[in-house]
Specification:
Length: 332
């Protein structure tokens, strides 16, 4: 597994990481035994970044990761968590006292004295623009509560504002064949600043799995049922904001362009990971098979890989320009 520098931290993380929203909630039920098996399969495949958040299952995802890593001393895995959504998304809630409370809770959940990386969890733009936000985060670093901090964002404008902050280690933003806008400015700006980029929602909530049809149904407690139009949180978090039927059409075209034997999810993850400026891609997994398949996408990277990434990139841009650009590009 290719390892890339995590900003200026001196750590390296795998080109394919693991997102653990699925191990908490909002994707249907995953029991703890299966969750631990997903973590183990990922680690065995060379994954060295687990991304989580304090609200995934109200801390369940963090706690499962903590129990898993407690039995693996010297594991070499970086855990990136997120904070800020335990309160209403108003700027006045992003204050030093709350940061400390949330951080202490995550430390308990993960069973550590110091958190590897804490990211603000898609805060309002005013929070990123406020110097006091970063003064409070710097204080947590100085106190030894966290080793580094970053910002998870919804929009390119928010990403660029975060990148301009000198203490920011990483930005986390949606990048996939349905969301190409970050390629224009965000990735070059991050690379120039030495800021890592985590590509989240890489498979567009499963739309880029190639497995869904118009008849696919999701559980009532799955955000793909209850947030398609932004009813619960930002619409861009579900199917990357793409209309479901349009996404199905785009996914079929992308899949049809691939050589026999290469699945659309693997091609998608490899394509994202190959974009200049991307540090890691963080697909989720609900099963051991998914975790292994995600990690195996790294074998498609490099000149000797079985996928012609240049040709696939051309197809990605063609499909985006014809089917998605007018709706998606102006919004995020």
């Amino acid at each position: 597994m290719q390892q890339n520098p995590l900003g200026r931290t001196g750590r390296d993380v795998s080109a394919i990481g693991l997102g653990t929203w699925q191990l908490g909630a909002d994707w249907g039920e995953v029991d703890e035994e299966e969750a631990l098996a997903v973590l183990a399969a990922s680690a065995e495949a060379g994954v060295t970044l687990f991304d989580t958040a304090d609200v995934y299952g109200d801390g369940r995802s963090e706690s499962v990761i903590g129990r898993f890593l407690a039995g693996r001393p010297g594991h070499g895995i970086t855990v990136a968590t997120k904070m800020g959504r335990r309160a209403e998304q108003r700027p006045e809630n992003y204050i030093a006292a709350n940061f400390r409370t949330w951080t202490e809770r995550s430390r308990r959940n993960l069973g550590v004295d110091r958190l590897d990386l804490v990211q603000l969890h898609c805060p309002p733009s005013a929070v990123i623009d406020d110097d006091a936000t970063f003064d409070a985060l710097d204080a947590l670093v100085d106190d030894g509560a966290i080793a580094a901090y970053g910002v998870s964002v919804e929009t390119c404008a928010q990403a660029l504002a975060a990148i301009a902050r000198p203490g920011v280690t990483n930005v986390q933003i949606i990048v996939n064949p349905f969301r190409l806008k970050p390629l224009d400015e965000v990735l070059p700006a991050a690379a120039a600043a030495g800021v890592a980029v985590f590509a989240r929602v890489p498979l567009a909530s499963g739309l880029l799995s190639g497995r869904y049809t118009s008849d696919t149904a999701f559980a009532a407690n799955d955000h793909r049922s209850y947030n398609r139009h932004g009813e619960a949180f930002d619409r861009g978090e579900t199917f990357s904001g793409v209309d479901f039927e349009t996404g199905l059409t785009a996914a079929r075209e992308l899949a049809a362009s691939l050589p026999e034997g290469i699945a659309l999810p693997a091609a998608t993850l490899a394509w994202i990971a190959s974009r200049p400026g991307i540090t890691t891609v963080i697909p989720g997994a609900r099963s051991v098979a998914q975790a292994r398949a995600n990690a195996a996408a790294a074998t498609l990277l490099g000149a000797d890989g079985a996928l012609d990434l240049v040709a696939f990139d051309a197809t990605v841009h063609d499909v985006y320009d014809r089917l998605l650009r007018d709706d998606i590009h102006p919004q995020w």
